[in-house]
Write a structure and sequence with these properties.
Blueprint lengths: L4 E5 L7 E5 L8 E4 L2 H5 L16 E5 L5 E8 L11 E7 L5 E6 L4 E7 L2 E7 L6 E6 L16 H5 L5 E5 L10 E11 L1 H5 L5 H23 L1 E5 L1 H4 L22 H13 L10 E7 L5 E5 L12 E5 L5 H15 L6 E2 L10 H5 L7 E2 L31 H12 L6 E4 L6 E3 L4 E4 L4 E4 L1 E3 L7 E6 L35 E3 L4 E4 L2 H5 L18 E10 L8 E11 L5 E4 L6 E3 L3 E7 L9 E7 L8 E8 L3 E5 L6 E13 L2 E6 L4 E4 L15 E4 L14 E2 L5 E5 L5 E8 L7 E17 L3 E7 L5 E5 L9 E4 L1 E3 L4 E3 L6 E3 L5 E6 L9 E7 L4 E2 L1 E2 L5 E9 L5 E5 L10 E11 L12 H6 L4 E3 L4 E6 L14 E3 L6 E5 L6 E6 L9 E2 L3 E3 L6 E9 L2 E10 L1
Parallel strand pairs: 12-13, 12-14, 14-16, 17-18, 21-28, 30-37, 38-57
Antiparallel strand pairs: 1-11, 2-15, 3-10, 4-5, 5-6, 6-7, 7-8, 8-9, 9-10, 12-19, 15-16, 20-23, 22-26, 22-36, 24-25, 24-27, 27-28, 29-31, 31-34, 32-33, 32-35, 35-36, 35-37, 39-52, 40-50, 41-42, 42-49, 42-51, 43-48, 43-50, 44-45, 44-49, 46-47, 53-54, 53-55, 55-56, 55-57, 58-59, 59-62, 60-61, ...
Helix pairs in contact: 4-7
Pfam family, one: Reprolysin_4
GO molecular function: metallopeptidase activity
Protein name: Por secretion system C-terminal sorting domain
């Protein structure tokens, strides 16, 4: 909802917050070898010069195991370079990932940012030359403790009044400039003693942590921190606990003690107030754990250093970076976002005492940076299930931070940025029935970034009576549950990189007949009339600094409802295709909200609803619908939908699968690849050259199987050590079971098993061998096997056959049942032979009309005019004439009794206009040299070139829209031909083919 309004913004918060991670836990991730000395050698000469290093590179694995090359440039974290320490910014060749890198005398640390989040690279403690990469916000055994220090100055700042002319989300969009603060980090004597008194090592630790958290703040808030000279020249790196100005509180981190120490530094002129904007004290704990406490505000002399973070040296850097990011959020006024009470067994009241009346916006323990995650577990467990360590700020946290940056924390300097922020639109305000699932869909655009991510969050802050109310079972201070409140938060924060829409609750609950899911899932539908606010936030994930926009929609919940499908609802229902079924539903006065509904049909258990049984029929509770001529299925579902507008709907789905019988045997498929393609009309790039896929069985993420008679007797291939770094063929000569599978989406997968001893290894070929080994959950020490709960993460690609080889060493097989579960970007499926009498073709569906524009058995769409198309596969009865498909939708073809089955997935084909002067001018005063090129490509011209794009010969854009800076580095590209397009702002002015040697 976009609107203009004038309002008074009140911010009320507890002023000091603490975070305590009680002990070090094992960190998930992948281990890899890295030759640091060879890498570091590229800087040995340039680091002796005063000039910033502008050329360098590093290749690191991504979280899913792919190698990514980053181009490096020395950043401005420090005013002057510190001996033996280099800090870099890095951008991947394709422009989709960025990093902050710190190089020390014998190792490196890094934080990588991409559309999937933040990932830490750090030395692996068990072996020289070994590093690990893991999600920076991975789950740990965390515990947060809050402290309060209400001195007079902070009390006076408790309520901030601002009158702003704004849209529905204040201070958005942002990202076209960076706010830079002068950061003073001081370390205690205990901190330096933990490094055996070596001030260089102590400073290196401090610099590394600030470099890491800069990536988070630059991406999330377009804020960066520059370390002042008094930190980097070691004036603030204290060596003696007896003489430093800081008092270590033995019970917890103390923000007040930090500020007191900085006040002393001002008094004795070691560090006067005007030399920094924000201060933070670092301390090292003698035993495991991490703690912090902080409060506002930067820019105020006697409160700008109210922040203390401390950790054990053994703590993974991801934990520490998360700790400091959380505490600095408090310095900028961001309060705790959870709505929970209690605490943990050791601190049973810290969630109660840390509850924030201005920010309690997330149900239960919350899940974003300013939440408490797993820490509010007693007397009631208020932990959100699933991913409860999200790597971004809630929109409410951003509101508080951005408001503070307006005033009073406005002592920053502006750093120019060429980024243009995205635009977010949540849609117009709507009304829905109570206790009824609904869907919201936002609109997002961005002028210069393609790696957008989309977040939907409820924006209602809990009242004092809502405090602790959670879902349908846990009552709050007012004595009622959240679902019966007119104000309590009900829905958790969720982010997607693939869609702007969100279902409330998730479809997995609706399809499991759980419209009101279990409380800890934090997806509760309201049972009473109320208003709910939702925020749609778009992040551009720009590699330099983040651009964000956010918009709000008000969802009015009517006292009417719920809408509920009543037939076909029971188990055991079977109907034939081309017959009529009376679909019924309980209206419950929902017709006063939407007088007409659509009725949709799924044949895959509700994963998709491709068939329309009725459109815009009366919402009167009954409709005689004809089941179309579609393949047989035992996973049919009906969905009744009240479409409010193209971006919002309410609905219900029948409770159970029912059977449709048919003589149509068109088979299910998954086409590969799924990647989007941009091609010029008539060019070879528009020939996608795709291969018909095999028949696909139902997809799954969890499979129960019985270990029966083995399919073969083989050597088992597992890892040779507990670090799972190298495979070994162990001479077990054991009975094994093997089954073949594919994945629906490429990416990193982790396979886990149910309890009991079971070796599970995955191979890319059969029979299993060392050459085709990919991963295992087990290792062999030369005399015995150890079977762990899950296999090491592995990257699997769509369209490739993989093989599970499993064994529990029983001989004969003992018929034990096991469950294997896959966690990754997609699902698993098994293939089978295609039925006789059926053929396959690819179709290009015009997105503007919904009609098939072209058909091709090889996806050759060179004849398509300019436009955007969805490419799908269709299996069909061979008697059909595919030329008649053109100009019709698949629904229209089915209505003609043509037996067909659309692929479960698709890919987008964008066709641009032909190579004429409308799109570009092939002018002679632009020269590309050298061509062929080995490494650096230059453009010789007097014309202005702002950006470029590079395409491979399949039409895939491999760079995105990149800023042009005088040359283009081809070093990392493989030999072959590429199409380069040069732009002056939005106008393409030149295109040619470049050959890479």
């Amino acid at each position: 909802m976009k609107l203009k309004l004038t309002f008074i913004l009140f911010i009320v918060f507890n002023f000091f917050w603490g975070q305590d991670i009680s002990k070090e836990s094992s960190v998930p991730g992948s281990i890899f070898s890295f030759d640091f000395q060879r890498f570091e050698s590229q800087f040995r000469e340039s680091r002796l010069k005063k000039e910033k290093i502008s050329k360098g590179s590093i290749t690191l694995p991504s979280e899913d195991g792919k190698s990514i090359r980053f181009n490096l440039s020395e950043n401005n974290l420090t005013e002057q370079r510190v001996n033996s320490i280099l800090t870099f910014d890095g951008v991947s060749n394709d422009g989709s990932s960025s990093l902050k890198l710190s190089i020390f005398k014998d190792h490196l640390n890094a934080i990588i940012k991409n559309e999937n989040g933040y990932f830490i690279v750090e030395p692996y403690k068990t072996s020289p030359g070994q590093y690990r990469i893991y999600n920076a916000f991975s789950k740990f055994d965390e515990r947060f403790i809050c402290g309060v220090d209400e001195n007079d100055v902070i009390k006076e700042l408790a309520t901030i009044k601002q009158t702003l002319s704004a849209k529905s989300a204040v201070n958005f969009p942002f990202g076209n400039q960076i706010r830079k603060f002068r950061l003073a980090v001081a370390t205690t004597g205990e901190f330096t003693q933990a490094f055996a008194g070596n001030t260089d090592d102590a400073l290196a630790e401090a610099i590394n942590m600030v470099n890491l958290i800069n990536k988070i703040y630059e991406s999330e808030a377009s804020v960066t921190f520059g370390l002042i000279a008094d930190t980097t020249n070691k004036t603030l790196i204290f060596t003696d606990p007896a003489t430093d100005p800081f008092t270590v509180d033995p019970s917890f981190a103390s923000a007040a003690n930090s500020q007191t120490g900085f006040n002393t530094l001002n008094t004795n002129t070691t560090l006067v107030y005007n030399k920094y904007d924000i201060g933070h004290t670092f301390n090292i704990l003698s035993s495991g754990g991490a703690q912090g406490q902080a409060g506002p505000q930067p820019c105020n002399n006697t409160s700008k250093a109210r922040a203390w973070s401390q950790w054990a040296l053994t703590m993974p850097k991801g934990i520490v970076a998360g700790l400091i990011a959380h505490e600095m959020g408090h310095q900028f006024s961001a309060g705790h976002t959870y709505n929970a009470v209690g605490g943990s067994s050791g601190s049973p009241t810290f969630c109660t005492s840390g509850w924030n009346a201005a920010a309690a916006i997330e149900p239960g323990g919350g899940s974003t940076i300013m939440g408490y995650s797993t820490n509010c577990s007693t007397p009631n467990n208020q932990t959100n299930t699933g991913n409860n360590n999200l790597n971004y700020f809630n929109a409410k946290s951003l509101d508080q931070i951005l408001a503070y940056l307006q005033s009073p924390a406005n002592c920053y300097t502006i750093v120019a940025s060429t980024n243009q922020p995205p635009s977010a639109n949540a849609g117009v305000d709507i009304t829905i029935p109570k206790n009824t699932p609904f869907k919201l869909k936002g609109i997002a655009t961005d002028p210069n970034d393609n790696n957008l991510s989309y977040t939907w969050e409820q924006a209602d802050v809990a009242t004092a009576n809502d405090k602790g109310a959670f879902g349908s079972t846990i009552t709050g201070t007012g004595g009622y549950t959240a679902v019966n409140s007119t104000t309590a938060p009900l829905f958790r924060s969720e982010q997607s990189i693939s869609t702007t829409e969100r279902y409330f609750p998730k479809m997995q609950f609706v399809l499991n007949n759980q419209n009101n899911p279990p409380t800890n899932d934090a997806e509760a539908l309201p049972l009473v009339a109320r208003n709910m606010k939702f925020r749609f936030t778009v992040r551009d994930n720009n590699v330099t600094n983040g651009g964000l926009d956010s918009d709000e929609i008000i969802v009015t919940v009517s006292n009417n409802g719920p809408l509920a499908v009543s037939y076909p609802n029971a188990t055991g229902i079977s109907v034939a295709s081309n017959t009529t079924v009376n679909v019924t539903w309980d209206v419950n006065n929902t017709n006063t909200i939407k007088s007409n509904v659509d009725i949709l049909l799924s044949i895959d258990g509700g994963v998709s609803f491709p068939y329309t049984l009725a459109s815009n029929v009366l919402n009167n509770g009954s409709y005689n619908a004809t089941i179309p001529y579609i393949p047989s299925t035992d996973k049919a579902r009906v969905k009744v939908v009240g479409v409010i507008n193209p971006y919002a709907e309410f609905f219900d789905v029948s409770d159970n699968n029912f059977t449709i019988t048919s003589d149509c045997a068109a088979y299910s498929t998954y086409i590969t690849p799924q990647s989007a393609v941009t091609a010029i009309s008539g060019s070879p790039s528009a020939n996608l050259n795709m291969t018909p896929p095999p028949s696909a069985n139902a997809a799954y993420t969890s499979k129960i199987f019985v270990y029966n008679v083995g399919t073969s007797t083989n050597n088992i291939i597992v890892y040779s050590n507990s670090g799972m770094t190298a495979p070994v063929s162990a001479s077990s000569n054991a009975v094994t079971n093997t089954f073949k599978f594919r994945v629906t989406d490429s990416g990193s997968y982790v396979f886990s098993k149910s309890s009991g001893f079971l070796i599970t290894s995955i191979h890319s070929g059969s029979p299993a061998s060392l050459a085709n080994f990919l991963t295992s959950n087990s290792y062999y020490n030369g005399s015995s096997y150890t079977s762990t709960g899950s296999a090491k993460a592995v990257v699997l690609n769509e369209g490739v056959d993989y093989y599970f080889v499993i064994s529990n060493f029983s001989s004969p097989a003992n018929a034990t049942s096991y469950t294997i579960t896959a966690a990754g970007p997609g699902s698993l499926y098994e293939t089978s032979a295609t039925p006789a009498g059926y053929s396959f073709t690819f179709v290009a569906i015009n997105n503007s009309t919904g009609k098939i524009q072209a058909v091709s058995s090889t996806a050759n769409f060179t004849a398509l005019p300019a436009g955007t198309y969805t490419v799908k596969g269709i299996s069909y009865n061979s008697t059909a004439n595919v030329s008649t498909f053109v100009g019709k939708s698949t629904s229209e073809l089915i209505a003609l009794n043509i037996c067909l089955n659309e692929s479960k997935n698709s890919r987008i084909l964008t066709v641009t206009s032909s190579l004429g002067t409308k799109e570009y001018q092939n002018i002679s005063d632009i020269k590309i040299v050298p061509n062929p090129v080995k490494d650096i490509l230059s453009v010789i011209t007097e014309k202005q070139i702002t950006h470029y794009e590079l395409y491979d010969m399949s039409g895939r854009n491999i760079t995105g829209r990149q800023k042009y800076s005088g040359s283009i580095n081809f070093t990392s590209y493989s030999a072959g031909s590429y199409v380069i397009r040069l732009f002056n702002k939005e106008a393409m002015i030149y295109k040619t083919i470049v050959i890479k040697k």
